[in-house]
């Protein structure tokens, strides 16, 4: 090893406090130099194996010949053919030790990686009632192990890709070769391969979803994000693929449809009747969450003659003395509820729940007593917000909030015609979306009669695992 090569390495990492160089003296004025990251390596492994092996190699060979020196070592030493910055970065920051000997013009690498990671625990994004409590974590190797425990068959394949020129993030693709459509598999493989060197960083699943999806500016999520390995298994064995990202405690599942977003991981662990009722209830709640406030505004603002007289009298009585118009009152109540919900997300769980409940009660009651809002408006807005809380996907919940405001605005402007226009616009927009070649409204549009029942309901397990037909008829 020439002095220039050693000086080059030292100069390259002189500003990196987490990279150290350690000189190991040997007899006859020879030495070995180790470069490694203490925060990413097992120091005990280095002291127990690497250092004694360096001394043993010196006693065996005198470190005078470069031929086959790595085969004489009892530990796995890999020769480094070039000392480019990309090569040494990939080795050092993945937990390898770079070893150089003063008498040899060669460097070797030894894998002593020990990354900081946490143990598997219950995911905090999906409540597990009867299902398993072990959730996916930030380590992609740990997640591979969890998923392989659920799918111990060779037909379920795990492939890895490196994405990001700066972060070099490892991304795992998981699929069942017997169930997945060949065209779908070729499509996602091509997208991941093309993405590899096009971006500098990859740090989130949402970022990857936008980069590989056909509609990066979609209001609706085109993949499902989950932290449950059992749900990943259920989806993979039904012809879908999953993507896990190193550093992200969850998995992306695609292709999906709108009706699949209404399913929960817990459905698998309940009776098919209970699960079917829950899915229908969430579908109804989705419609209520989006359209109920707009429908109420259109009805009370433009079509009072369509309201039963006792109900109309109650609404008029409660609005006596209210200084705001009906649309402005609805915007105020919805904004208050969204603010409380956002505060509940950002604060610690116990404090957030307390603030949301107590704050909502106190401020809501005070606003009614002060004559700023009417009780009927609070009821409508609260019903819409609670209905939106039944949805599993947090991304879908955010989309529902945006669509709710849009429906209220159009209904306040055009009345019932505006309300119907908002419904029509949403339907047209949904039909334009697709998730990796699968229509977002499948199996309703285009209609696939044999898949509709399975999409809306859960059938008895005796009927076996079912792969939807629309996954095989991708556009």
UniProtKB/TrEMBL annotation:
Keywords: Membrane, Transmembrane, Transmembrane helix
Keyword match Membrane: yes
Superkingdom, natural source: Bacteria
Cellular component GO terms held in the UniProt record: membrane
Matches recorded under InterPro entries: Spore_Ger, UPF0353/GerABKA_families
One GO biological process term: spore germination
Membrane-crossing segments per the record: 241-262, 283-303, 309-337, 349-370, 376-396, 408-430
Listed Pfam families: GerA (PF03323)
PANTHER family: LEUCINE ZIPPER PROTEIN 4 (PTHR22550:SF5), SPORE GERMINATION PROTEIN (PTHR22550)
Family of the protein in this entry: Belongs to the GerABKA family.
Name of the protein in question: GerA spore germination protein
């Amino acid at each position: 090893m020439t002095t220039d090569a050693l000086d080059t390495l030292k100069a390259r990492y002189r500003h990196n406090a987490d990279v150290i160089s350690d000189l190991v003296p040997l007899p006859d004025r020879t030495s070995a130099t180790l470069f490694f990251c203490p925060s990413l390596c097992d120091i005990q492994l280095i002291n127990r194996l690497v250092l004694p092996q360096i001394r043993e190699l010196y006693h065996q060979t005198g470190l005078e010949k470069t031929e086959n020196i790595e085969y004489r070592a009892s530990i796995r030493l890999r020769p480094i053919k070039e000392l480019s910055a990309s090569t040494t970065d990939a080795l050092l920051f993945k937990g390898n030790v770079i070893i150089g000997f003063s008498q040899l013009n060669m460097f070797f690498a030894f894998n002593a990686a020990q990354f900081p990671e946490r143990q598997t625990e219950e995911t905090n994004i999906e409540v597990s009632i009867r299902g398993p409590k072990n959730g996916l974590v930030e380590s992609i190797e740990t997640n591979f192990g969890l998923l392989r425990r659920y799918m111990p068959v060779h037909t379920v394949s795990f492939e890895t890709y490196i994405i990001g020129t700066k972060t070099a993030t490892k991304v795992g693709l998981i699929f069942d070769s017997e169930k997945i459509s060949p065209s779908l598999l070729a499509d996602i493989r091509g997208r991941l391969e093309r993405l590899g060197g096009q971006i500098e960083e990859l740090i989130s699943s949402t970022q990857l979803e936008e980069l590989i999806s056909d509609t990066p500016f979609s209001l609706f999520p085109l993949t499902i994000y989950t932290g449950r390995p059992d749900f990943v298994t259920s989806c993979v064995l039904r012809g879908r693929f999953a993507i896990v990202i190193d550093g992200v405690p969850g998995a992306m599942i695609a292709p999906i449809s709108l009706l699949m977003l209404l399913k929960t991981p817990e459905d698998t662990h309940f009776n098919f009747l209970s699960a079917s009722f829950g899915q229908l209830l969430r579908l109804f709640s989705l419609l209520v969450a989006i359209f109920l406030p707009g429908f109420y505004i259109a009805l009370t603002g433009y079509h009072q003659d369509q309201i039963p007289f006792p109900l109309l009298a109650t609404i008029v009585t409660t609005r006596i003395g209210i200084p705001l118009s009906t649309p402005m009152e609805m915007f105020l109540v919805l904004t208050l509820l969204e603010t409380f919900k956002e505060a509940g997300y950002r604060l610690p769980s116990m404090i957030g729940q307390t603030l949301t409940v107590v704050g909502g009660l106190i401020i809501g009651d005070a606003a009614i007593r002060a004559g700023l809002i009417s009780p009927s408006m609070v009821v409508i807005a609260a019903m819409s917000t609670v209905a939106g809380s039944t949805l599993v996907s947090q991304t879908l919940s955010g989309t529902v909030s945006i669509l709710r405001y849009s429906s209220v605005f159009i209904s306040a402007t055009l009345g019932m015609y505006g309300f119907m226009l908002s419904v029509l616009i949403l339907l047209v927009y949904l039909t334009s979306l697709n998730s990796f070649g699968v229509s977002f409204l499948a199996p309703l549009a285009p209609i696939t009669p044999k898949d509709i029942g399975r999409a809306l309901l859960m059938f008895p397990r005796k009927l076996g695992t079912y792969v939807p037909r629309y996954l095989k008829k991708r556009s």
